[in-house]
Specification:
By secondary structure, the chain is mostly helical. It folds into 2 domains: about 90 residues, no CATH class; about 140 residues. The chain is built from 13 helices and no strands. Helix 12 crosses helix 13. The longest helix is centred in the N-terminal third of the chain and has 18 residues. The two termini are about 25 Å apart.
């Protein structure tokens, strides 16, 4: 293992609010030890899926997956969307946000989308919270208004000066108090990121022997990935897959 680079967290891990995440390099060491015990060498981990040609699919997955059981709820939903678009003679794996908005329009809005393709799950447990379907529709409109058509457009925006997209993302219901959805959207589009959902929090918490908050868990995973010489998204996928199967 390469020597740890001092100050890794402070130099690389900014939250969407601009607040830097502090950290202890020894926590990276603890996670690396757990990875070695439980996951084996990186070439055995497999590779995460994404949507390299469909920003619409990225949006649906990123928003609907938060707080829900992925294989039970999200995967069937994505399959219904694909089936619907294929029945229209389209290729869902190349859909843009504008294509997604077109589906909403033809179905009759967010309520109809939730009933025909999505689910009735809401963005929070607060009474009257918007449907996730409404948040996806709002997110698609944000991408259209920002001139983002493809995952490559989003990657360029994230890596460039267009930070207004990120700040506007956090006005979407369900995305205001956490950047987990924003991180996951980037991952699905091709950015090297970590999605600190409950599985990642649980995996990192076990390694460190204490509960951790999302930003810090992401920082530890990114630090460990750097030491292993792998992409952060690859380690995220391996941790998530292992933890979800426990």
């Amino acid at each position: 293992m390469r020597p740890l680079q001092g100050g890794y967290f402070l130099s690389t891990c900014a939250t969407w609010t601009g607040e830097l995440v502090p950290g202890d390099d020894q926590d990276i060491v603890r996670l690396l030890a757990q990875v070695d015990r439980e996951l084996g060498p990186p070439h055995t981990w497999g590779k995460p899926d994404g949507y390299p040609d469909s920003l619409a699919m990225c949006l649906i997955d990123a928003i609907w997956s938060l707080g829900l059981r992925y294989k039970i709820v999200v995967v069937p939903l994505l399959n219904r969307y694909r089936e619907y678009r294929r029945a229209e003679g389209a290729d869902p794996d190349r859909d843009s946000p504008l294509d997604l908005l077109g589906v909403y329009e033809r179905l009759g809005g967010a309520e109809a989308f939730a009933g025909r393709i999505g689910t009735r799950n809401r963005t929070s447990t607060t009474p009257g919270a918007p449907l996730k379907a409404a948040s996806v529709q709002q997110a698609a409109q944000l991408m259209v208004d920002s001139g983002l058509k493809t995952p490559a457009d989003l990657v360029a925006a994230v890596q460039g000066p267009h930070w207004s997209v990120e700040s506007k993302w956090h006005t979407i219901p369900g995305q205001r108090s956490s950047d987990t959805g924003w991180r996951y959207l980037q991952m699905l589009a091709g950015v090297d990121q970590v999605k600190p959902d409950r599985m990642i929090l649980r995996a990192v918490g076990r390694a460190l022997g204490r509960r951790v908050w999302a930003q810090y868990a992401a920082a530890v995973v990114m630090g460990a990935a750097a030491q292993l010489g792998v992409r952060a998204v690859q380690l995220d996928y391996a941790l998530w897959s292992h933890e979800s199967s426990r």
